């Protein structure tokens, strides 16, 4: 059985290997008893080491580890404080999430995809599910306020022109949500290309 550090590192390496964390983009965290474990800022996510994971308290203060936490650590902290069910937050910068979040500032609807069933609470392809989009901001208090205003967002949301935040009650379910949402976004992007 993997410990939480190894499980999170494994998820990050996997996401980076899919091309979803280019040029140091993306940040990744998991809830712990003391707060949350999060990636240090500015690291190449394809070569992350154990010492690149910092332990923060629920308000984002680093309590173990060296270096600066992710520039978006405050948003991760706000998410863990907002909803006790969130156990993991995986943030990526794929081409599909970046392009589609710019084209659909009011959110992206998925309908008719079998893959929707990988998203918690969804039992049929026939439903329509909305992936919310919030405006981007460099100020994390402002970004967190936009996310809070749109709550609940059970499995993730997009930040316009920026990327995807996938959520889950643990690392495994968050990985599933990340992969399913990226798959659905790739399908929608492909369909939009054909319609153009
Ligand atoms: C390479 S631009 C991406 C950053 O501005 C940010 O959005 C990001 O995802 C990574 O920041 P980081 O501070 O490394 O966690
Ligand atoms: Zn980012």
Automatic annotation (TrEMBL):
Residues 6-189 form the Class II aldolase/adducin N-terminal domain. GO terms for molecular function: methylthioribulose 1-phosphate dehydratase activity. It is an enzyme of class 4 (lyase). It comes from the Bacteria. Its cofactor is Zn(2+). Binds 1 zinc ion per subunit. SMART domains: Aldolase_II. The keyword Transcription does not apply. It catalyses: 5-(methylsulfanyl)-D-ribulose 1-phosphate = 5-methylsulfanyl-2,3-dioxopentyl phosphate + H2O. Zn(2+) binds at residues 91, 93. Keywords: Amino-acid biosynthesis, Lyase, Metal-binding, Methionine biosynthesis, Zinc. Pfam families: Aldolase_II. Its EC number is 4.2.1.109. Pathway: Amino-acid biosynthesis; L-methionine biosynthesis via salvage pathway; L-methionine from S-methyl-5-thio-alpha-D-ribose 1-phosphate: step 2/6. Belongs to the aldolase class II family. MtnB subfamily. This is Methylthioribulose-1-phosphate dehydratase. It comes from Saccharospirillum mangrovi.
